Amino acid sequence: MDGNPEPPKDPFLHSRGMKIPKHPQLTTGRVRGAIKNDEYERKECDAVMRVVRPHDTVLELGGGIGYMSTLLAAIKKVRRVVSYEANPALIPYIRSVHAANEVTNVDLRNALLMPQAGPKLPFYIRKNFLASSMDNSVDVADITDTAQIEQHGIAEVLEAEKPSVLVCDIEGAEETLLPAGDWSNLRCAIIELHPQWIGPKGVRAVFDAMHAGGLTYFAKASEGKVVCFRREW
Fold first, then answer.
1. Which member of 34, 42, 173, 219 has the greatest number of CB atoms within 10 A?
2. What is the Cα–Cα distance from 105 to 81, expressed in whole angstroms?
3. Do the domain assignments include residue 185?
């Protein structure tokens, strides 16, 4: 031994000025590389950096691993984030990302935002956290637990929170959820579309919902399936 101990390994990945805790399931492979190279959710992040302002209140639908809510709170320094994530297996990790970046203004809700409030629904947790879902018809052997997830009504949430920005990535549920909301309080919206699942009819439904709220497609902050809408250019 040469008396020069190796420095302790960094427990974080570093991305866009944020610290992302390493996790044996969530920050490996392509995800790890994307985070390190500032490519993780790049299109959504670029749109957020362009149009979100410090005074905004943001409604985030699809909290994921907490990357976007941390970017909004720690880097863009918005007033507040209300973040919905249905997968209960991700909630502890999201909180660890917030803690690592000293984020205290995110209201993280393990719930589903729906056209109407309803009874709790079963959510099936699998060995692979990211494969957890409300579908128990496939890979039954991989299910390790079942959680009961609340359903919150979109009208009540919008009335109570009055967000000025919407950030939405909900894997195709945008087709039915967004037309059920009154978006007239929004200043802008950033939405990842999933045309492979919702088709042309679903894409039109999303655009119609934003137009009904007084927002218009904003090309400069849109890229591919990530579309941005603004009230004023």
1. 173
2. 6
3. yes
pTM score, whole prediction: 0.94
CATH of the domain at 49: 3.40.50.150
Asked if residue 145 belongs to a domain, the reply is no
Beta strands in the chain (DSSP E): 12-15, 18-21, 57-61, 80-84, 106-109, 111-114, 118-126, 143-153, 165-168, 188-192, 216-217, 226-230
Both tokens of 172, joined, read: 């195709």
Domain count for the chain: 1
Assign residue 213 a region (left: φ > 0; alpha: ψ between -120 and 50; beta: otherwise): alpha
Average pLDDT over residues 171-182: 96
Whether 93 is in a domain gets the answer: yes
- Mean pLDDT of the residues in the chain: 95
Q: Is residue 158 a part of any domain in this protein?
A: yes
Res 2 pLDDT > 70: no
Longest dimension (CA), the chain: 70
91-150: per-residue pLDDT in tens?
Answer: 999 999 999 999 999 999 999 999 999 999 999 999 888 788 888 888 888 999 999 999
pLDDT at 173: 95
Q: Which domain holds residue 198?
A: 40-115+151-230
Determine the distance from the C-alpha atom of residue 186 to the mean position of all C-alpha atoms in its chain, rounded to a whole number: 17
With contact defined as beta carbons under 8 Å apart, do 43 and 54 qualify?
Answer: no
**In angstroms, how far is CA 92 from the centroid of its own chain?**
15
